[in-house]
Amino acid sequence: MSAAANLSRNGSNRREMADVERNPLRKERFLVALLETPTVKEAAARAGVSERTAYRWVSDEDFAERWRAEKRRRVEASLERLEFAAGAAVECLVRNMRCGMPSVEVRAATAVLDLGIRATELLEMEDRVRAMERRMGEAALSGKGDDGPRVVLVDRAPPAGSR
């Protein structure tokens, strides 16, 4: 790169950094673009900042934390929408279990049973993890169990031939 091109490039970077200080909305526009595009390069182009600046901002810990927090907030909002829609989905499955078309009724009933079993397993696992965490915390407070936590795996399957 020629010396003139290098000076020009350094000058444009200084101008860009000064412009960001005068116009903090550029960083906000970049954050929004980053959340809505698959790559930093595309987000930079959409927000009107150089790729170099975009990567500098992404590597900044404060900006990265804001990015993570906003992604987390968006995921939580999506999960809330899913929870709301779950009621309608269950109503649809129940309705289809009585639609008069045996193949549809069987598929709907199978889905209801599968989802019910999975939900029950998740709730049981959550209870077991909480109990283990409680026991580990109690052991740590009492000074017992300094040799590390012990995990006991329980086979919940019935013994062969017991059915």
Give a verbal description of the structure.
There is one protein chain. This protein is mainly alpha-helical. It folds into 2 domains: 3-59; 83-142, no CATH class. The chain contains 6 helices and no strands. The longest helix has 41 residues, at 102-142. It is flat and about 65 Å long. Residues 1-9 have low confidence and may be disordered.
Share of residues in helices? over 70%
The general outline is flat
- Cα separation of the termini: 79 Å
Integer count of domains: 2
Number of β-strand runs: 0
Number of helices: 6
Radius of gyration: 28 Å
N to C succession of SSEs: HHHHHH
The largest pleated sheet is described as:
none
| Poorly predicted parts | 1-9
Strand content: under 5%
Roughly what is the average pLDDT, rounded to an integer?
82
